[in-house]
Design goal:
Layout (H helix, E strand, L loop, with lengths): L2 H9 L3 E8 L2 E7 L6 E7 L2 H7 L11
Length: 64
């Protein structure tokens, strides 16, 4: 997953949440836009994505 992919996901009205934050990176749960059901999980250690996520636990949180 790239930052562009994650931004497209957000722009479509869907959301994400941090499922796990560990030494291998962050696992994101990708949630549907109509009810929040998790449809996929992505493990990433991409510093660009990590910077975008910041300290947020979900895409609905205000960026720091």
């Amino acid at each position: 997953m790239t930052l562009d992919d994650l931004l497209r996901w957000e722009d479509s009205g869907a959301s994400w949440r941090v499922v796990h934050h560990g030494p291998d990176g962050v696992t994101l749960g990708l949630l549907r836009c109509d009810g929040g059901e998790e449809v996929d999980r992505v493990l990433t250690d991409d510093p660009i994505i990590l910077a975008h996520i910041g300290g947020r636990m979900c895409s609905d949180d205000d960026p720091e």
